[in-house]
Amino acid sequence: MKKKLAVLSMCSALSFSLFSGLVSQPASAEESASQVHYLLTYKGNNVPSNLSAKIEQAGGSVERVVEEIGVVEAKSSSPDFLAKVKADSNVQAADKELEVYLEDDPNPADGQPITSIPQPDWNDPNQNYHDLQWDIKKITNDFKSYDINKGNHNTVVGIIDTGMDFNHPDLKANADLAGSKTFVPGTKDAWDQNGHGTHVAGSIAGNGKVYGVGPNLTVRSYRVFGATGGAQQSWITDAIVSAANDGVEVINMSLGGWRWMANNLGDKGDSASMVAYHRAMQYATQKGVTVVVSAGNDSRNLNDIHDMQAYWKETYGLDIKGPSRVAPAQVPGVVTVSSSNEWSTDKIAFYSNYGSVIDVAAPGGDNGPTYDALYRQNPKGNYLDKRDFMYRAFSTWPTYLTPYVTGNLKGYALLHGTSMAAPKVAGIAAVIKSQHPEYSPAQVQAKLRQTAVDLGKVGQDPLFGSGEANIYNALTK
C-alpha cells in the first residue's frame, strides 16, 4: 500500500509566535458543502489490507495513510459515512478531522515598528545582532556554552512548522534542504511563506548575525502549514512519523493552543485525534526522538478544565463539553515548555499557559514589565502603547518576505510566544544529544529538568516546571 497518498516530498520549507489573522484557506462552496475530512484510527495500529474498498463502501475515499501507527485520513460527502465507519469493529476511533492553528497574537503591533536597529549588511562579517539576543545569552551563559559544545551536523532537529528559508545567510550552512518535506496538499516544497518556522529555526541553529542554542546543529523542515490557515491532524501525525523514520534526534512543535482541543469521550473511548497523537508520540519516542512542544498562549491554567472551558466559551464561542485536553501540550511523553521573560525570576510571560504539565520554561519574550503589570491588573484593557518590542525574541525571518510588523528589518524579526520558548529547549535537547548520543529521550528530559535554573517557587512549580532550561548547566553539571 502506498503510505502517504497526499504527501509531496520536497524537490528543491507552529502557544506560537502569537501571529494574528491566520484563517483557513477557503474551499469552494461546492466542496465545503459536500466534502468533510475524517480521521480514523485502527486497532492494533493495523490498517486493513482492503482499506480503500472499505472506505468506498462507506461512501468515502482515502486521502492519507500513516501505516506505521494505523491512522487514516478520509473524506466523504455522505452524512452516514462516520456512522458506517464506526460500525467497523477494527476501528478504534473516528471523528471529523480537527485543524490546528498557529497561535493568535492577543496584542498585535499597530503601526509602531522598531526602526532603530540597523539593516543587515551581509557583506560585513563584523556586523551582528548578538547583543539583542538576551534570550540566547541567558540560556548559554553569555554564549559560553559554545566553548564546550555547539552541537554538530550529525544531530538533527526536525521542525514541524511553516517551513524554512533555506538560503538565509544565518541558516543555510545548517539547513537540510534535501531532507525537508511538505505535508500540505497542493504544495511542492518546504520553503517558508509565513515566517514562523524560520524564526524557530534561527533560535535552534542560527550561526551568523544571530546565534541559535546550537550553531552547528542541523535543522530540517517538516512543513504542515501553508502561508495562511491551519494544519489537519493527519498532516501533523504524518510529519511526526516521517521525522522519526528519518532519524532526527529532536522534534520541535511550536503549535497548538485553544483551537486544538481533543475531547476524550468519543463513542469508543479517546477521540481519534488523541489516539493519533498518542501513537505518533510513542512511535517517535521508541525511535529515540525527544519531542518538544509549546504550552500555548492562552494565559490559562491547563489543570483547570472548567476555567479552560469558560475561557473558550467566552473568547471564541466554543462550547466544549467533557474532559478535554490541549494538544500537543497535554500529550504524555512530550517536553512541554512555558515561556519565561527577560526581566522577572518569579513571573512567566503574561500569555503563557501553565500547570503541572509544564516540564521546563525557556525565554519566549513579552512586552516588558510595564505592559505586564497593566495586563495582570486587567487582561481586557488596551495597553498597546505600553509595549516594548525589545523584550521579545530576536531571530531569523525569511529574507524574501515583508518584514514582520514589530520592525522594519529584512531577514530578522522580534516575536514573542511559547512558540519562541519551545525551540530554545529543542536546541538544548539536541546539544545534549550531541554530547551524549547514547541518551534516550527519558535521559534527555531528565537532564533538561535536573540542570534547569530554579525560578519562581523553590522546586517544581506550575509556572516554570523544574525551572528555566540552561544549556551551559546541562553541559557542565
Automatic annotation (TrEMBL):
SUPFAM superfamilies: Subtilisin-like. It holds the Pfam family Peptidase_S8. Residues 153-467 form the Peptidase S8/S53 domain. GO terms for cellular component: extracellular region. The keyword Disulfide bond does not apply. Residues 1-29 form the signal peptide. PANTHER family: CEREVISIN-RELATED, PEPTIDASE S8. GO terms for biological process: proteolysis. InterPro entries: Lanit_process, Peptidase_S8/S53_dom, Peptidase_S8/S53_dom_sf, Peptidase_S8_Asp-AS, Peptidase_S8_His-AS, Peptidase_S8_Ser-AS, Peptidase_S8_subtilisin-like, Peptidase_S8_subtilisin-rel. The active site is at residues 161, 196, 419. This is S8 family serine peptidase. The keyword Hydrolase applies. GO terms for molecular function: serine-type endopeptidase activity. Keywords: Hydrolase, Protease, Serine protease, Signal.
